Please model this.
Amino acid sequence: MVEFSPTLDVEVLKRLCLTGSTMAIETNVVVAKEVSVVFDGKFKALDGVNVSIPRGQVVGFIGPSGAGKTTLIRCIVGRQKLTKGELTVIDLPAGSASLRARLSYMTQENSVYPDLTVRQNLQYFATMFGIKRRDQKAALAQLLDVVDMTPQADQIVSSLSGGQKQRVSLAVALIGKPELMVLDEPTVGLDPVLRDQIWELFRRLADEGTSLIISSHVMDEAERCDSLVLVREGRVLAQGSPKELSQQTNAKSVEQAFLRLVKGQQR
Model:
């Protein structure tokens, strides 16, 4: 089992970023105004969503499966067309070509090549990001260590378990560490120890100025976020820090706060 180092060299990870990109100074990295997405002219996957995502924080999209979290994420990264509303990402319209080098996206599905080894996948994506080969070895080795995949580095991806494939996808998302990372349920299939280590990494990245949007239906992960967006049936029930949401609902936990907000909505 990998031992997460509290002195993880984030500067090594930064070598995997595209050079020359300018950090923006907007207060919010994402702003959605009355965003709606309707499928087949009937089903409202999102219904008038208004939300602002602060820069440099770990923001959790929390809600049950089917709540609309993934649809909202796909809108943010430019993979889902809006039916109506406005959505800006790093002060540009969502889906703008210039955003491709400034955000990374980890889907729920495996986004790596099954016929390549873990190392070959990381090398391929590092090259796609313009990273020189002489800079890849140390940084990729550290990424493999961070996601606890060093023993499987030269194993073909198709032979890995589901959780291991998830870790490779997370490593790929870290290669493209830009201003905004959007991670759709990145800890699914991970054991509790590794999940804790990954969340420590998320915290370090945010402390270094990276903005992270992380979707989850696991309420205990919500407590580790700076800010939460509680989603249900395509709508945002509330937004705020775990402490704020608990205080507003007189709840002892985020899960209890969520349930009380749902009951209030049903009245």
Notes: The domain at 10-266 is CATH 3.40.50.300 (Rossmann fold). The CA atoms of residues 128 and 176 lie 9 Å apart. The mean pLDDT is 86. The chain is about 35% helix and 25% strand.
